[in-house]
Design a protein that fits this description.
Blueprint lengths: L5 E2 L9 E2 L3 E2 L12 H4 L9 E5 L4 E8 L9 E3 L4 E5 L16 H14 L10 E6 L7 E9 L10 E8 L2 E12 L4 E2 L1 H8 L10 H9 L16 H4 L4 H16 L5 H13 L7 E5 L6 E10 L4 E11 L8 H10 L4 E7 L5 H9 L4 E4 L1 H10 L5 H11 L1
Parallel strand pairs: 1-3, 5-8, 15-16, 16-17
Antiparallel strand pairs: 2-12, 3-9, 4-5, 6-7, 7-11, 8-9, 9-11, 10-11, 13-14, 14-15
């Protein structure tokens, strides 16, 4: 059964851009296999920013994410239509707007034009997002036409500089928020028009033109299918992620207080939304001698807010999955108007996952892969940084 629509390498020069279709790279094993020079004549064949004409003021821009750098987690949230993309200053010793790589200057221009609005917004080019498909080869999946910003982010939040470190050396990079527009296909005719300098032709998508004219977002959002995640979905598949998770597992097997892992689990959940999850505590359970984490999740404003209680359970497993026995234990602890969180270095077994979803229990799962991604997004993006973090806090 064919699950994905694909365009073969030989078809690329005449292909439309269909949302979530795969565009196949060549088979020679060199740069000539690149899809972007076939799809868009005149763009470069290297880097995460592929532009037409000027690099800092392009007439067409392709944002390419290959997923090979776990410490730079570009991410598309298909439910909200928000695409998070990191800039190209990824080496210590360079300034945020270094001259050797101009991607960050390009981002800065895009968001400045967006915030100023009016005629300045007309300088923003069509921006296409492609994400690497598979670990080998040069196949990419088209994820959509994006524009800078998002209605739920303010002008101080949609483009921010973040500090990272490599081998103890610090540097800054941009983290940018884009929105996927509600367009299912980009026609080949419009691509040709853009390349000839006629971006606002009759082939221009109305949704994109309306955003350029008014700044109003019509975003492509997909409803949650409540898909049961596989073991592979829940465990890191890249080498860095696997190493970080192993360090966590081994560290908490050696610490003097075996219950420190519960505090670590509570800290991990807090790191998902530190403004809302301000405090938690590890308490002794009265029923089975186990340890539990309890805390509050704040909603509203400082002047008018409400705190929801949550109950968190943690299991430090290396290989075994979490079964119904443990998820049922968490369900039994949740009271009216509370929710539950299960944190594990392993994964949730299929039957347990299925029961939670089908019965619509208010449970959040944070598995091995999630733990690694939360740490990386918080700047703990290397083995050295992780060890320092663990030794300092637990």
């Amino acid at each position: 059964m064919k699950l994905d629509f694909m365009f073969e390498f030989s078809e690329l020069s005449t292909a439309d851009l269909n949302i979530d279709a795969i565009y196949k790279g060549g088979s020679k094993g060199n740069s000539s296999d690149d899809i972007f020079t076939k799809l868009f004549k005149g763009v470069g064949n290297m880097g995460g920013f592929r532009t037409l004409k000027s690099f800092t003021e392009p007439t067409l821009l392709i944002l390419v994410s290959d997923g090979s750098k776990a410490e730079w987690p570009d991410f598309l949230d298909i439910e909200t239509g928000i695409f998070t993309y990191y800039g190209d200053n990824r080496t210590p010793g360079y300034s945020l707007l270094n001259t050797s790589k101009k991607g960050n200057k390009c981002l800065e221009n895009l968001f400045n034009w967006t915030h100023v609005g009016g005629d300045k917004r007309k300088k923003i080019p069509p921006i296409f997002v492609f994400i690497k498909e598979g670990k080998k080869g040069r196949d990419y999946r088209f994820r959509g036409l994006v524009v800078p910003g998002n209605p739920i982010f303010s002008q101080t939040e949609d483009l921010v500089s973040v500090w990272k470190s490599t081998n103890g050396k610090r540097f800054q990079n941009y983290k940018a928020i884009f929105s996927i527009l509600s367009i299912d296909k980009i026609s080949r005719e419009w691509i040709i028009d853009i390349q000839s300098g006629n971006t606002f032709s009759k082939n221009c998508p109305e949704v994109w033109k309306k955003w350029i004219d008014t700044g109003n977002y019509k975003i492509l959002k997909a409803t949650d299918e409540k898909k049961i995640k596989t073991k592979e979905d829940q465990i890191p598949q890249d080498q860095l992620g696997k190493k970080l998770l192993k360090i966590i597992y081994e560290y908490f097997s050696k610490v003097k207080n075996e219950y420190d892992f519960e505090y670590f689990a509570g800290k991990i959940f807090q790191m998902t939304d530190p403004d809302k999850i301000q405090d938690f505590s590890v308490t002794q359970s009265s029923r089975d001698g186990g340890r539990d984490v309890v805390g509050k999740y704040k909603i509203g404003t400082n002047n008018n807010s409400y705190k929801f209680s949550y109950h968190l359970e943690a299991k430090r497993y290396e290989k075994n999955g979490i079964g119904v026995r443990y998820t049922s234990r968490l369900i039994s602890r949740i009271k009216h108007r509370e929710f539950g969180v299960f944190v594990t270095t392993s994964y949730i077994a299929e039957q347990a996952y299925k029961e939670i979803i089908e019965d619509n229990h208010p449970i959040i799962f944070i598995t091995g892969r999630d733990i690694v991604e939360i740490l990386i997004k918080s700047g703990i993006n290397s083995e050295k940084n992780l060890k320092i973090f663990l030794e300092k806090n637990f």
